[in-house]
Design goal:
Layout: E1 8-9, E2 12-21, E3 24-31, E4 36-42, H1 45-48, H2 51-67, E5 75-81, E6 84-90, E7 94-96, H3 97-101, H4 108-127, E8 140-143, E9 148-150, H5 190-193, H6 201-216, H7 226-235, H8 241-244, H9 250-259, H10 271-282, H11 289-293, H12 306-314, H13 318-323, E10 337-340, E11 346-353, E12 359-366, E13 371-377, E14 383-389, E15 391-396, E16 402-406, E17 418-423, E18 430-441, E19 448-454, E20 457-461, E21 467-471, E22 474-480, E23 486-492, E24 501-506, E25 511-513, E26 520-526, E27 532-538, E28 545-550, E29 555-559, E30 564-570, E31 576-590, E32 598-599, E33 606-611, E34 617-622, E35 632-637, E36 644-648, E37 650-654, E38 660-665, E39 672-677, E40 684-685, E41 695-698, E42 704-709, E43 717-722, E44 725-730, E45 737-741, E46 747-752, E47 755-760, E48 768-769, E49 778-782, E50 788-794, E51 802-808, E52 814-820, E53 835-837, E54 844-859
Antiparallel strand pairs: 1-2, 2-3, 3-4, 4-6, 5-6, 7-8, 8-9, 10-54, 11-12, 12-13, 13-14, 15-16, 16-17, 17-18, 18-19, 19-20, 20-21, 22-23, 23-24, 24-25, 26-27, 27-28, 28-29, 30-31, 31-32, 31-54, 33-34, 34-35, 35-36, 37-38, 38-39, 39-40, 41-42, 42-43, 43-44, 45-46, 46-47, 47-48, 49-50, 50-51, ...
Helix pairs in contact: 4-6, 4-10, 6-9
Length: 862
């Protein structure tokens, strides 16, 4: 049925028609409930009136909705109103790949980038058992901001067959002829043409035809009629790249031809394997086509024995690490030599080389055990524990003396200062300085440069005691130049976030930034010649590559892989110590009536931020690649229904009525706060001043909020401000911060020199010590009546479990509430992270991380 502008389907108001096809008509509509524009596809009557076909369509719509992949069109709703059956999807602005290609080839770089994202979407669907079966340029959409979306993923399958017809003749789609086998002529696989049973490899064939067309501007299979085109699919191979464009790299030609093998068994075995092959070339898309063609040169034989390669391919991420090196090194191109150093399951925290570059030290949490420092050698696969527990090795002097940071204290997930120690290898350690995040020896081993946390600010001291730089953010990886005249470091502007830039500063305090902004940056060292600074940096999401920058700021990429890299050090002979990480962050919840936790992770780096008062809604931030530049703010119900994106930023607080969200907008400097509605309404700026704004919470009256921030050049403190505007008013002294308000909204808990105190929010009266709660205990929240507090502490049960205890603030009596068990796969990555809980302890959300690290010594990078 046709819908008129202004008519309604449920909560959706029809704004106009967008188009029509074999699967029905598509309309632009307004979602009155969430105040956003969406697309609505009204299903054809033949499908809507067929109960079996309709049930299958709904099941597959639910499966696609559960994918929640950034490269697959998101499905928001599936509903029936009267005889009208419709699906609600996100509304896209942009153009189809067909419109983008036209009759011309795309630039190689763009074709590879598009191809990688298409295959990622295909792989995600295949993992859920969903096959598209009608991939073509018309079903691939490029948004205005360059995001690739696969349309109608899995939905073509739902158009049920006519009675007695085999499965392979199910659908007639736009650009197909009546009675034709399922698919679109020119992009069908041979098994589709023959009406044979299909599996996931049919999508791989179709993708090969699309990639061929993107690279050449010509269709891989095209005849004067549909019959001739199908005959070409069965018998012919498309012309080689060399016949069309000699500048196209042979490595891409081989990938395309493997996709287009006539027999499914001869193609890539999975979309995941195909993605790895394409991603291995994705770094080269930033270089010239000639440099990419070097990827076709057979790589020299690596010194990794065959058995070691087999182990690496089985380990999480290691196979991708070796296969995925960036292919844009200067000619003559030669593969670097990778020597794997670790083989256990867990997370590496630090790594450094002894002066001979043959002995390597690293700290790690292996198999859920304690954090320890280990020693290994290049000529041995074994690692030996050293007598330093709960410590990281941050630098090794030219004389072989160790600088360690032990017993780190948790400020946030990244900034964790501890005690700086020095030790000889295997000997006893000696304390040097408290509250140190990172350190590096001076060239002669006489002193160190340190990043020192003092008065709620991070200071770079070069050497110890000489402050050359300080920030309200945080500082990592100070590395002294070989002449001892300057120090390079990573400058992170926001406390609690690892985005930042590489910079250099001298002893007089003259600082210059030498890199562009990195969404994530961890690990830095001077190049062998000292003419560059090498560091691991991500331009998007968390997939850090190894980059280099000259002292005047010219930046280039040395190595790019699937997953993420972190640099440990660079030896004088050019050997590079780095580790490869495959990781994700997520959230798991126990809701009312549930007997076991439900995973509420949405994209690749889910950070829980707040839980609604009734325990039904979670506020979260997506900080990875899926969240996009500047991150994404989402809300998700604890029943597992799809998350709803509210806007860009970092989620901080959820109002008591669940209608509003405070988020941090990261791109201004200093960072500001914004207010976003969870339903109908318009977002707006909440602050616009010279203060930094690191974190915030609503006050119970719903009219004010408190936040942690700092005036320029001063230490952070807690402030209060009206939601309707007006100036922020300081609540706590400089250097004293806290955000947990009492249920009556009159006081806020802030830590002052290790002691928790209750500060009056109106500024009247003196602060009082919060009794019966130790300053080192984790304070989760107050009970609804304010008479007790819920605290977290390490469980007596061990295994990184967390006990939640109710503390009576009048008597000090303690009552167990519950034990929160970490997810088994998260134990090595820290176990229970952020813990959100309702006031009675009945509903909770735990944040978790899962990361696998593998340490490598790499030679041949330049």
């Amino acid at each position: 049925m046709a819908l008129s502008t202004g008519s309604r389907l449920g909560t959706y108001e029809i704004l106009g028609k967008l188009g029509a096809g074999g699967m029905g008509e598509v309309y632009r509509a307004r979602d009155a409930k969430l105040n956003r524009d969406v697309a609505i596809k009204v299903l054809p009557d033949a499908l809507a009136q067929d109960p079996a076909a309709l049930a299958r369509f709904e099941r597959e719509a639910q499966a696609v909705a559960a994918l929640s992949h950034p490269n697959i069109l998101a499905i928001h709703d599936f509903a029936t109103e009267g005889r009208t059956v419709y699906a609600v999807t996100e509304l896209l602005e942009g153009e189809t790949l067909r419109a983008r290609i036209g009759e011309q080839a795309l630039p190689v770089r763009k074709a590879i980038d598009f191809g990688v994202h298409i295959v990622r979407g295909i792989a995600a669907a295949h993992e859920r058992g969903i096959i598209h079966r009608d991939l073509k340029p018309e079903n691939i959409f490029i948004t205005r901001d360059g995001v690739v979306k696969i349309l109608d993923f899995g939905l073509a399958r739902a158009a049920g067959p006519s009675p007695g017809a085999p499965e392979a003749t199910e659908t007639r789609i736009a650009d197909t002829t009546p009675g034709m086998v399922m698919g679109t002529v020119g992009y069908m696989s041979p098994e589709q043409v023959r009406a044979q049973p299909l599996d996931h490899r049919t999508d791989i064939f179709s993708f090969g035809a699309i990639l061929y067309e993107m690279l050449t501007g010509r269709r891989a299979f095209r005849g004067d009629s549909h019959v001739e085109t199908m005959n070409a699919i069965l018998k012919d191979d498309p012309p080689e790249f060399a016949e069309i464009n000699p500048n196209l790299p042979g490595s891409l030609d081989r990938i395309v031809r493997r996709c287009l093998e006539k027999q499914p068994a001869d193609r890539f075995h999975s979309a995941h394997d195909l993605a790895i092959s394409l991603e291995a070339l994705s770094g080269a898309s930033h270089s010239s086509t000639a440099a990419m063609a070097a990827a076709a040169i057979p790589a020299p034989r690596r010194r990794i024995p065959l058995a070691a390669v087999a182990v690496a391919l089985l380990a999480v991420g290691a196979g991708a690490f070796i296969a995925g090196r960036m292919l844009s090194a200067p000619a003559p191109w030669a593969a670097p030599d990778f020597h794997r150093l670790t083989y256990r399951r867990g997370l590496i925290w630090s790594a450094q080389m002894m002066p001979d570059a043959a002995t390597l030290l690293y700290s790690a949490v292996w198999d859920g055990g304690p954090r320890r420092i280990y020693s290994t050698r290049v000529d041995s696969p074994d690692s030996a524990p050293l007598p330093y527990d709960s410590a990281d090795v941050v630098s090794i002097s030219s004389k072989g003396e160790l600088a360690l940071v032990a017993n780190r204290q948790f400020l946030n997930a990244y900034a964790q200062p501890g005690t700086l120690q020095r030790a000889t290898l295997g000997g006893a350690s000696r304390d040097i300085l408290e509250n140190v995040q990172d350190a590096d020896w001076m060239p002669d081993g006489s002193n160190l440069a340190v990043t020192h946390y003092v008065g709620n600010k991070f200071k770079l001291e070069f050497p110890i005691g000489n402050v050359v730089y300080e920030t309200s953010g945080w500082i990592t990886d100070p590395r002294v130049s070989r002449d001892g005249k300057s120090v390079a470091f990573l400058d992170h502007p926001v406390l609690g976030d690892d985005r930042g830039t590489a910079a250099i500063i001298d002893a007089s305090g003259t600082k210059r930034t030498i890199s562009g902004d990195c969404e994530s940056t961890q690990g830095l060292a001077w190049s062998p010649k000292g003419d560059e600074v090498w560091f691991t940096c991500s331009q998007k999401g968390l997939s850090r590559s190894l980059d280099a920058s000259t002292l005047d700021g010219t930046q280039r990429t040395l190595l790019r892989v699937p997953g993420s890299l972190r640099l440990g050090g660079v030896a004088a002979d050019g050997a590079v110590l780095l580790w490869h990480e495959i990781g994700r962050r997520g959230a798991s919840a126990l809701a009312t009536g549930d007997t076991r936790e439900r995973d509420l992770s949405w994209l690749d780096w889910t950070q829980p931020a707040a839980l609604s008062e009734d325990g039904t809604m979670l506020l979260l931030t997506e900080e990875g690649e899926g969240g996009g530049p500047g991150y994404g703010v989402y809300v998700r119900k604890l029943d597992g229904s799809p998350a709803v994106r509210l806007g860009m930023g970092s989620a901080l607080a959820l109002s008591g009525d669940g209608k509003w969200v405070i988020a941090q907008k990261l791109n201004p400097s200093p960072a500001q706060l914004i207010l976003l509605p969870t339903g109908a309404g318009e977002g707006r700026a909440l602050t616009n001043d010279a203060l930094t704004h690191d974190n915030a919470r609503f006050l119970p009256d719903g009219k004010r909020f408190i936040f942690v921030g700092a005036e320029p050049g001063k230490a952070s403190r807690t402030w209060v401000q009206s939601l309707d505007g007006g100036a922020a008013i300081a609540v706590t002294p400089e250097g004293v911060t806290g955000l947990l308000a009492t249920p009556d909204g009159t006081r806020v808990v802030a830590r002052d020199e290790g002691v928790r105190k209750l500060y009056p929010i109106d500024g009247k009266g003196e602060p009082e010590v919060l009794r019966f709660v130790d300053g080192a205990e984790g304070l989760v929240r107050f009970t609804a009546d304010g008479r007790a507090a819920l605290i977290r502490r390490a469980s007596a049960a061990g295994g990184r479990a967390v006990d939640v205890v109710r503390v009576d603030l009048t008597t000090g009596a303690r009552t167990p509430v519950r034990t929160v068990l970490p997810l088994p796969e998260s134990v090595s990555s820290g176990g229970v992270g952020q813990l959100l809980m309702t006031s009675d302890g009945g509903v909770y959300v735990q944040g978790y991380g899962v990361t696998q690290s593998d340490l490598f010594l790499v030679r041949g990078l330049r």
